[in-house]
Amino acid sequence: MIVAELEHDKSDGMTDYFNTDTSRIVALAWSKHTKDVFSEMRKAAAKFSETAHLGSGRDLYTARVVLTEDVISGGSGYWKDSPSHWHAELYGDDDRARYHGKQFSTREEAEAFTQQAGEPHPIEFQTKDGPQLVHFAWRIGQSSIEHREKYSMGHGYYLKASSRYSDGWIVRKVSSENIYKGIELDVLGGKPAAPTAAPTTGQEVSQAVTMTLNPEHQGVELRFPEKPAEAVLTRLKLAGWRWTRFNACWYQKDTPFARRFAEALQEEFGAQSVSQ
pLDDT digit string (tens) for 197-219? Predict the structure, then answer.
């Protein structure tokens, strides 16, 4: 299963402690193999608006104002291509960008920002040889969002538009048997709103959803009293459920994730459980 996880940096450099907390997990897609393929992860990330910046053709582009020449003034040295501390107004109200640069997921977005912000103004420095007019320019740096950490203490292969220990979304592949304790697992497509009026066929599920355990085939089956809404169908397909016309049900291998998914639907629409 390919998932997106919203991480929050909890590291403390003073005590040499590095860790993140996860506040939300979204199931994006299913995979038919266990290989870590970035193109597959990027395709899944593009389906979710909050991880679209990790999709195909995306990377991390940082726009910064930098010096175009070396200068020594007042006993301090400022070197070519080092970030400017004198052009904070060009970044607008983005305080983080003033220190780390303005970040984008495509070069076109970064170039459009620099054009709109305008050219950095030159600054006159006092040097031992007299006044020196120093010029500045925009520089756009590129770094990959594809992280490869298959080594001891590494985090495996994953997509993230920042370093490992930082705030932000991470997209990676995990075993479908992996249960995240204390965190609700969302399924891409979201939960449909509770009906406020009399439902009609094909629009809302109005009666109890039946979950059947099938020990013979080691499976779980879901039956709806009428055709589910499109949002529910999308959730079923993305979560790996398949439709069988012969038994008139949606089915999947009996796993902890499958049961949790089925129970979540039952909580929304009413429950009936049957052991076959």
Answer: 333 333 333 357 888 888 888 88
